[in-house]
Amino acid sequence: MDNQQKDTEIKILDAAKEVFQQKGMTGARMQEIADKAGINKSLLHYYYRSKEKLFEKVFNMAVSIFIPKMLEIMLSEKPLFEKLEFFINNYIDLLTKHPYIPGFVINELNRNPQFLLNIFEKNVQIKEKKLFERVDVQIQEEVKKGILNPIDTRHLITNVIALVVFPMVARPIIQGVMFENDKKQYDSFLKERKAFVLSFVINSIKV
Amino acid sequence: MDNQQKDTEIKILDAAKEVFQQKGMTGARMQEIADKAGINKSLLHYYYRSKEKLFEKVFNMAVSIFIPKMLEIMLSEKPLFEKLEFFINNYIDLLTKHPYIPGFVINELNRNPQFLLNIFEKNVQIKEKKLFERVDVQIQEEVKKGILNPIDTRHLITNVIALVVFPMVARPIIQGVMFENDKKQYDSFLKERKAFVLSFVINSIKV
DNA sequence: ATTTGGTTTAACCATTTGGTCAAATTTAAA
DNA sequence: TTTAAATTTGACCAAATGGTTAAACCAAAT
């Protein structure tokens, strides 16, 4: 049945996702993925010819979870403060749902810096530059209007992403050192951050 | 000679550092480390009985680069704004000198969240809690004095570290997407951040 | 000159790992 | 029912990998 096939493929991808995200490309074992998917190792190679192909697929899937929302928000016509609010809320939620992805991505960034860029450009295509330019234009307009203090768009974007993503990436340290490794406390800390980060950023840039 | 011995050990640690930081624990190969150190693989095992022992040593060295300065700054008697300035300046410098370390650390965080915590606690020892408390007390005092707006110390610390560390960790993406992958531009971007991050943070928390 | 201790090497080894292949099984079509 | 195609499996393989060992080497002390 086609259903069986889909099932197998889904089981493989789920298992691969789990193993790759936790152990990285080099740490992952095809055997472990096969076991976790409840199938034979040969079947794994039947569906994905090599470890690399499988990894690429999983990596692509991971990255694409985050791109559409970003595009949607950045391309929308809202004023900057609203965009910020949307971005921060949506991404903290998204990251809470997929906590392993940022570490996973950063992991592979070290190993192969070009790889992600290719994927990124494939997903964002030509818009990439226009994207940045659009946000830049908007920000500089709001500066002229006197809503914002003069600010460098690149630094601002970097800061917002840093404030949202870093607490997920560094969770084990922060949770350990500042929250006595209490998972629940850290979860509510992350929830608090939605409001906190937003006002932190706005405070800093508003006139 | 003792000199020869030191030489070999240094060569080993340098090579190991390079390979581990770029490829992670699982991606690194003992043979590659030996080659890069210009020695035999057996000699590697003579100095460090196993890959794990060698890795632990390298990891420890990496982490300890960042801890003393942090302690020094946090334990000093300066007012908060000066502490912030010191921290941001020193850490952006330190990270520029050791750009691979944050990614390296985060890498291993996924694989073994407990490992870093142990090292951290070994280095920071009992002070750990007192450290946080001290900063907290100072901040809440300055809030009372009316220098700062009311603020959660944990969020503030998280934010500052995020703003400083994240641009190093995510360098390949940010440099690629926002700087057309131009290394020099990104280097000056990092330098600019010293002033930018400081005023960004202070703007946000000052009354 | 000989012994002694640490250092370095080459040759090996057992295990793991990604990957293959031919046969068996299942599914869908004729 | 037969046939053809896709799916799944178990047995197997070559290469890579971390690690061992016994012997060679070498500097310094006796």
Q: Which helices and strands occur, and which strands form pairs?
A:
The structure is a homodimer of 207-residue chains.
Chain A: H1 2-27, H2 30-37, H3 41-47, H4 51-75, H5 80-97, H6 101-111, H7 113-124, H8 127-144, H9 153-169, H10 171-178, H11 183-205
Chain A binds a DNA duplex (30 and 30 nucleotides) through residues 1, 4-5, 8, 29-31, 39-43, 45-46, 49-51.
Describe this structure in a few short sentences.
2 copies of one chain form a homodimer. Chain A is mainly alpha-helical.
- What average pLDDT do the residues of chain A reach? 91
How far apart, in Å, are the first and last alpha carbons of chain A? Answer: 63 Å
The H/E string of chain A reads HHHHHHHHHHH
SS content category of chain A: mainly alpha
Proportion of strand residues of chain A: under 5%
- Total strands of chain A: the figure is 0
Low-confidence stretches of chain A: none
- Enter the CATH topology name of the largest domain in chain A: Tetracycline Repressor, domain 2
Tell me which protein chains meet in the greatest interface and how many residues each side has: A-B, 53 and 53 residues
Cα gyration radius of chain A (Å): 20 Å
* Main sheet specs of chain A: none
- CATH 4th-level superfamily of the largest domain in chain A: Tetracycline Repressor, domain 2
What does this molecule look like?
Chain A folds into two domains: 3-59, Orthogonal Bundle (Arc Repressor Mutant, subunit A); 64-205, Tetracycline Repressor, domain 2. Chain A contains eleven helices and no strands. The first copy, chain A, has helices at 2-27, 30-37, 41-47, 51-75, 80-97, 101-111, 113-124, 127-144, 153-169, 171-178, 183-205. At the A-B interface, helix 1, helix 6, helix 7, helix 9 and helix 10 of A face helix 1, helix 6, helix 7, helix 9 and helix 10 of B. The structure holds a DNA duplex (30 and 30 nucleotides).
